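Run log, item B.
One chain of 159 residues. Sequence copied directly from the ordering sheet:
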Amino acid sequence: MKRRLSSGFTLIEVLVVVAIVAIVAGTATLSFSGGEARNVRRESDQLALLVRTAREQAILESRFFVIAFNRSGYEFLSPNEDGALAPVKDDLFRARRLSSGIEIVSVVVDGQTSLDAPRLVFSPAGDVSAASVEFMLGDVRTVMKVRNDGAIETEVVRV
């Protein structure tokens, strides 16, 4: 019997290569979109921790704390000696810029959507307005919600 030498690939070999390429491409796509969700969630979680800390500081120091929001970040304010709101002089409560591409697309405080410098206020008694802050990157949105009792939750919402 004579054997012929083949100079190509079999159908099975081609299908295996196509399947491997599809798996790698799918994994890369999932990890990229998962990265967006992680980044937005990280910003939302960081704000949630700072909100909790600002509320505790307002109680401990018996003074008002305010968080002022804009599309690209937020800053912490507190009344100075003259009673005017001024940036808090503390590294923990420094002004924050959001990571590249992430925006604050909505801030609702006590049921009111404010388009002009929305603010979340913490009283020395621990009172806080019910609020929600919505972050967005690509098709991923994260909502951080603050209840009147100070409880905070975050959730990721895909658009």
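Observations after the first pass:
- The mean pLDDT is 85.
- The beta strands are 65-70, 73-79, 85-87, 96-97, 103-109, 112-113, 119-122, 131-137, 140-146, 152-158.
Flagged for discussion on Thursday.
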